[in-house]
Every structure is written in structure tokens, then in C-alpha cells.
Model the fold of this input.
Amino acid sequence: MTNLRKAYDAEQFRASGHQLIDQLADYLAKATAGAAMPVLPWQETESAHKNWEAHLEASAPEDLFTKTLRESIHIHHPNYMGHQISPAAPMAALAGLVSDFMNNGMGVYEMGIVGSTLDRLVIRAVTEKMSLPDTADGVMTSGGTMANLTALLTARSLKAQDEVWKLGTHQQYALMVSEQAHYCVDRAARIMGWGSAGIIKIPTNADYSMRTDLLDEYLTKAKNENIQVLAVVGSACSTSTGAFDDLEAIADFCAKQNLWFHVDGAHGAALVYSNRYKNLVKGIERADSIIMDFHKMLLTPSITTALIFKDGTLNFRTFAQEAQYLFEEEEDLDWYNMAKRTFECTKTMMSLKVYSLMRTYGDALFDEYVTTVIDNTHLLAQLVDKDAAFELAASPQANIICFRHRPVGLEEASLNAHNALLREVIKKKGDYYIVKTNLRGKVFLRCTLTNPFTSEQHLRGLLETIKATARETRRVAR
Ligand SMILES: *Cc1c(COP(=O)(O)O)cnc(C)c1O
Done:
């Protein structure tokens, strides 16, 4: 057989496919049960590189997928408590395989009949959940970073004084956002050519949410400096601490000042699915645009992001400014030709992953998941709060929590180095995975409780591990 024949051999595919699914099912059972295995099988960068070079050159290499499973970070393990990403639900991962296999490009309708239609269904389901009006619509796109940029391009197209799309930028434009916002919002402003003056960072309250009481003052200051503010971005929630901005206050301000109101809900817009916690995103229904990552809080593989507009027709203005050209004919609002409204030309059938879960389990799955991981976070906050050796940065609102180890006898000046070292040692040990963040000059340990199988036992285990690690590192230091 030629290599081409071999690469596309159906029987070979059947055999390796069956074997792989068995392997993944065994892995899933083991990981979700919290079996003894490193959550992070840490390797130094250079040794990881050498190790894979050896694989590439070996005459009889180890099975590729066995090696990949063993050496990857294990999101499905309940001791995974680090960055914001869902343990992929198996059904959604299978949908991802189908999407990869069919490889429908989706740029135009005929290249993605299923994908484009499911995009529409999924977006509609989300807009209903968010209580947006019937005019709402949007697209699925490749990640929160891209979705934020796309929404802000639309804001610019609608609110800028001059015809930026045609003539380029000749005015100093800006957006206002909390100083705790994800870095991609800052990046979006700079990509649009607005430079440092284009991003006005609003200070935060003690709980790290935006000080909306300062919006008026910052807007006046911008106007005095000849800066035209086009939009305010609300974080729901911010990445480091999980703080939710007061979306209703921002909505009021934007309505009064005729500004675009964008909600970066990459992480937390998913709370609309939780009957217990949806009050945290009150006001989201008043946003002009919203983004939400399914891969962070709604169990799908990455990357799967919804970009939504309260008036869906405005999405046709993202990459064009002349409304009269676009809106002349009803058929110009061709929802089914995705590339008119997305950054991507080719994209994957990401809505298939969401739809597979929606259709199989209903919204109840999302509610159960979101509620469970937030409940867990509140439980961890209680454990931390009760223990004199720890200090919370702020009460967690969703499933992100920041705290630091503060043992008796260690002065404030040493705490940053102490907590940074703890995180580093725990990372390399690998039995728990947590991250760290810097808040107002202080280093905090940071957890996103993203695994629904994390229970009280794992949370207590984490705190014990931190304390044990602290004892070891301080013994070595002495
Ligand atoms: C994760 C995150 C992003 C970036 O989303 P990606 O899907 O990783 O590109 C943007 N904003 C917030 C608030 C986030 O938490």
C-alpha cells in the first residue's frame, strides 16, 4: 500500500479508533476517581524537548497517544484546581472528533450546512438564557480573545465619529475597563491602533470589581484630553479574582452617555445557567455585546466561544461600515454565510460540541456543573477562612479563589517570596495543580475549581499539602 492508501485506510482507522476510545475511557474512569497519579507530570522544558526528539527518532517509538495521555496535565483529575478550563465532557469531545474528521470549513453556508445551522441554534439558546430580546443574534468564534476584539470592532464601527473602516483612525479613541480586566481587552485596543491612551483602566473596589462610581469622572477627564470614549467593558467575571463588575451600573452609565456596553463574560457569563448563582450577572441582558467561552465553564473542549449582539444585525457592521450597502437587501443579512460576521474564514464546527451536550442532557447539565463548582469554591473559602494560617484575598463570587499562606512568625515582607515558592514547589511535585497571581503587590495562590468531582476531601488535601510544603521549604531555608 502507498502511504496515502495507508493514511486513509478505513480498517486501520477502525482498529486504532476502537483502541483509542478504550484507552480514553480507562483514563477517564481513573482520572475522575482521583486515582494516584500526578495531576501535572512536570518536565523541565529542555528535557521535554529531548524526550520528544527521542520519540521522533526512535525506531520503535512508544504509542503516541499513550505517551500524550501520560505526559499531559490532567484536567479530569479532582486535584486539578488551576487555570480556567473545563474537563471536557466525553460527548462533546466525540463531537469534536466528528468536527475534525468532517473538516467542514464553514466560511460559506455550503461548506458548513450543519455547523452554521447549529451555530444559529446554539446562539439562540444562549440569548434566551440571557433574557436578551428577540433581535439578539451572534456567531461562534475561536476563543474569548478573538471574540472580544470582534465585539470591540463592532463598537468602533457604530460609535466612532469617522469612517474608520475606510479611512483609518485619525481620532484618539478609547474604551473604559476595570484595571482587573483580562489582558486581551488591552491588546484589542492596541490592535485597533489606539495605543496606551486607548485603554482607560478604572480602579477597583476592595472586592476587585470595577469602581463604577468613577466612570463619570474618568469620562470627563478623557473628554478634556480630546479622547473619544466609545465603549465600556464590564468583566463578568475578571480573570484573576473572579470578581463580577456591577453590570447594571455600567448599563445605566452607557445608556446615559450613549456608549457601547460590552460584557467580557468569557468565564462567568455561563452563570446564566445556574439557578442559584445567575443573579451575579444581572444586567447582562442590557449589554450591546457579550462573549462567553463554553470551554471554560460549560464543559466543551477548547476553543468554543459565543459572541452575541443584542441587535444581531449589527454584527454585519463588524467588518464593514456602510450600513446602507449592507442593509439594502434582506438577503444581505445572510446569517448562514458565517465569514461575513466572524474573524475567521475557515473555522471548526464548534457548535456541534455544545449542541451534543444540550441535546443529550439539556441545560440541567450546565446548571448542575456551574452550581457545583461554585458551591465547592465557597466551601474552600470557608476552610481557608477558618484556618489561621491562611488569608483570603476576597470572598469568592464564582469558582475562582485567591488566598495566601501566612504562617505565624513570617513577616509581611517575606510573604510574597514564600507563596511564590510554595506554588513553584507544588507545581513540580504535581499531586495538586494550582496557580498564583499578583494582586495590589501581594502574591496569592489562585485556584479555579473547575472539576465537578473535586470534593471536600480534595480541598482539605490541598490545604494540608500547602502547609506540609511550607514546613519543608522553611526547613530547607533555615
Ligand atoms: C479567559 C478569558 C479571556 C480569554 O479567553 P480565551 O478563550 O482564552 O481567548 C478573556 N476574558 C476573560 C475575562 C477571561 O477569563
About this structure: The CA atoms of residues 200 and 425 lie 37 Å apart.
